[in-house]
Amino acid sequence: MRTNIIRHESMMVSYDVINGWSVVEVDGEVDVRTAPMIREGVLKLLDEGHRHFVLDLGFVTFMDSMGLGMIVAITKRIREHEGSLRIASVSGRMLRIFDLSGMRESYEIYPSAAEATQFAPTPGSLAHWPHPFSG
């Protein structure tokens, strides 16, 4: 059952638990105004005991550097709680942002939330984050 956790004029965030994964769906703009709200929403879920997350970006219409920073911040907190994070439904435009920022190698990126949640989470999924530089 999908539960809304944030409503804002330019963005909404909801989550559902599927196969042991907390699927956080972001709908709208992820920018300097909304990224802190998303971070707080995910951290609240983490405090409530959720450990394994899929961040579904399929309905994100815009993301700036604050959005990428928010993803890094929640990743660090999830890792502190021995959880895991997958990214799902990233558009080609956003995938380019992940490429340009060097973040693509650090995350498991799936074409859809359904594919990201196909198998139950395993402990230690973020053991190698951030991805070691191999240059």
TrEMBL record:
Provide the family line.
Belongs to the anti-sigma-factor antagonist family.
* One Pfam assignment: STAS
* Residue ranges annotated for the STAS domain, each copy included: 11-120
Fetch the PANTHER family from UniProt: ANTI-SIGMA FACTOR ANTAGONIST TM_1081-RELATED, ANTI-SIGMA FACTOR ANTAGONIST TM_1081-RELATED-RELATED
The domain of life is: Bacteria
Protein name in UniProt: Anti-sigma factor antagonist
